[in-house]
Amino acid sequence: MRLPRPALIATATATAAAALLLTPNGAVADPTPRPGAQPAPPVREGSGLSGPSDRAAAKAPESTTDRALTTPVTELTDGTGTAGGTRGYPREQVLTPDAVNPADKSIKLGLTPYHAIAPKLNALQRLGDRVSVEVAGRSAGGHRLYLVTVTAPESTRQARAQERMRELIENAPSAAAKDPSVKRTYKTPVFFNNNIHGNEWEGTDAALKLIEKLATAQDRSTTDLLARNRVYFNITANPDGRIAGTRANANGFDLNRDFVTASQPEVRAMRQIAIDKQPAVMVDLHGYVNGTLIEPTTPPHGENYEYDLFLKNTYANALGMEAAVNGLGYTPAKDGVEPAQIPFRDQEEGWDDWPPIFTPQYMPFHGTVAAHTVEFPMAVNNDEYDDLPVAELRRRSAINVAIAGAAMRASLNYTQTHRTSLIADQIEVFRRSVTGAAQVPVSPETVPGVPGIGPEDVYTTDFPRAYVIPAGTKAQRSATAAARLVDHLLANDVQVRRATKDFRLGGKTYAKGSYVVDLRQPKRGMANVMLADGRDISDKVSVMYDISGWSLGRLWGATVDTVRTSSPKLSVPDRAVHEAANVGYVAPRGTLRLRLDDAREIAALNSLLTDGVSVRRAADGSAIVPASARAKAVALAKKYDVAFDATKATGTTPLHRVRVAAAVTPGELFALREMNFDVVPVSTAILNAGFDWSKADVLFASAGLNHAGLNTAARGALDAFLDRRGLVGRGATGAALNAATGLLAVEPVEGNGDANGVVRVVNSGGGVTSGAPDHSFVYAPLWFTDLGPGVRVEQSYAAGNPLVSGHWRALEDGSGGPAQAASRASVVSGPHAVLFGTEPLFRDHPKGQFPQVARALLTVS
């Protein structure tokens, strides 16, 4: 039997609950070492009408958004311009040093500042023929991302043979299982990911120490390890945060929440590493939980994994890491270091692997069969960084570096000992996928050696036979959205095919040009985790660590049909595609109409308005563009892949370029800029310092703006602006600002602050939600009652239980649940304000909801 697992979600004190509300960037680990410590309750982006409303607003410069949006996703380069998979090892290059930065936050801790990494890597490459450096991309702040490979030398022919075997494992697993060369000579890929949270530094330094040891050691164990394995190190996944001492990158994004969306260049680089290198084992090094936390996790477990194979290896490797960490000899009395803990074994719930937004929960979809978050114990960030003496900080950092090193060495030992079975299990993951085999539920019989497996650990899914993304204007709400979704699937290494003729599948007829995602493919789990509705898991656990629903099919604005058939082969006339077909189009003559149902269409509209084109809004909410702007439309159709159709409509209301003052979260700021709005970030502090409201046409408020916290002058200036212009508000901050200024006569009702997921909604067809999808996303949902005169319901939560997938329970007193939200207004509007109780821009993810905010801004301004 598994030992009793103390619940992570214990009842929090009022003080702790208030502290949680102050953190804007998602769940973090317990920052304070203490005897018997457990990871803290989830820390959410949340809101709360009764809690602090002055959460930090986003303030990233526009240049970082531009860089994130335009940075290409490329193959790894070794400095010669040659694709990484075609050259032998070593792949050495001389890195140009960065300018010395004495303000780098690593320095105070006695750790390696970012500017010292390139010289260190140059020196490591000179130690022999085992170390190679490739540039995996650049961060949002423009810093290089370094992938280091340590392995025995390989000729070009040998490297190509390794790539052939890697592709065989993925695409022809049954053949790979029988190929003697795979068993004999394929090098197991192991991946160590470091410093994805910028102020969790020590993994980088431990990696550099381990690379040096592997580069120079001449013992038989090391030479055998490098002859039979490739060891990859992402030296710092978040150089922006490492330098600045922040959890997030330069855009304010928690990169370990971005994998399903991949909005940030650092995440796209890690995604490409996963695809190119196909790790069997990976460790993601974090801080700070005392004692050292080593996954596997508590339930719920991701239902799209081959979890039996994953748990078998992840638990066994965790035991080895635990022994290595505890074997360092640190004690609570002497060092303040508690014994290591394994959530699967030691805890009840609250540290789950359900969403694919975290690195170790994303990697299994690319064949990783042992993946871990490791949280070293001694906090050195946040208040500790500011308050503790330098000597104490450096003592703690040295302990963390040693523990991170022990975890990595133990993982290499596990890989070397179990190399054959690891590769066999990776092959089995892909074999089940390509053959459509059923998942194997975990049990003491199917995963021997893992104690305490119970029914609470069993999560599987019923994979459909395929998904179809239909072509044609009647079948597809937005061709632009469909193309974006297809490109995203392809970027995640999901195979997509396009019909060359009309066809019939699953009892429906589809037009030529429709896309088919056959789930009998290597990355079926990836395809399903992105396209499926997901599941309502509200009854499974009391609360989730982070989000619980994310369906691209429901949230990205594209129509996606599920096909269920027992047919072993899909009879569809189609061909494989490597990118979506262009849908950009401009009618050859006459007045043009641009629909405003997609973020890219909004971006194109804003480009026209910036250029001074006279655009008017039609009755259906679309934009009417004069024929004289056809040349600009052609350029925008190509840039944004949008269609300008012919129309005889003339439009009514003139549209103008909107300058948005935005007190918003980082994800919302990024989404506004993605739609090409002219945005100036504001906050309580900025307004108190004196803000020129002539720079803005509308205020969008969701975070970091507290009306009561404004001084007299700032409050008067804000009130005067809102009297003249207007407000778009989201969540508790927006509702509180509306209440303080009396723009809309509504009563906001706070739902469960832990709730999140995909919900069904009913759109009224008004100016804000015209053409909007019938699903939305919520995180700490709100709704509105007691609507006064002049208040329009733009959208409501659906009747019954509106939650489709995610986690949303009523509070202990029975309030705040989905039943209480059912049929209530989720978006309301009036002459000078629009309020959202949903999260239409959450972390730049729910693309299909973006136009609702854009329409609100255009309407109010």
Overview of the molecule:
The protein has 861 residues and is of the alpha/beta class. The protein is built from 28 helices and 34 strands. The strands form 7 sheets. Strands 23, 24, 25, 26, 28, 29, 31, 32, 33 and 34 form a 10-stranded mixed beta sheet that branches. A 7-stranded mixed beta sheet has the order 1-2-4-3-5-9-6. Strand 23 (659-663), helix 23 (666-674) and strand 24 form a beta-alpha-beta unit. Helix 3 (117-125) runs parallel beside helix 7 (202-216), helix 11 (307-326) packs across helix 16 and helix 21 runs antiparallel to helix 22. The longest helix is centred in the middle third of the chain and has 28 residues, at 390-417. The radius of gyration is 27 Å and the shape is globular. It starts with 13 loop residues before the first helix and ends with a helix. The model is unreliable at 1-54 (pLDDT under 50).
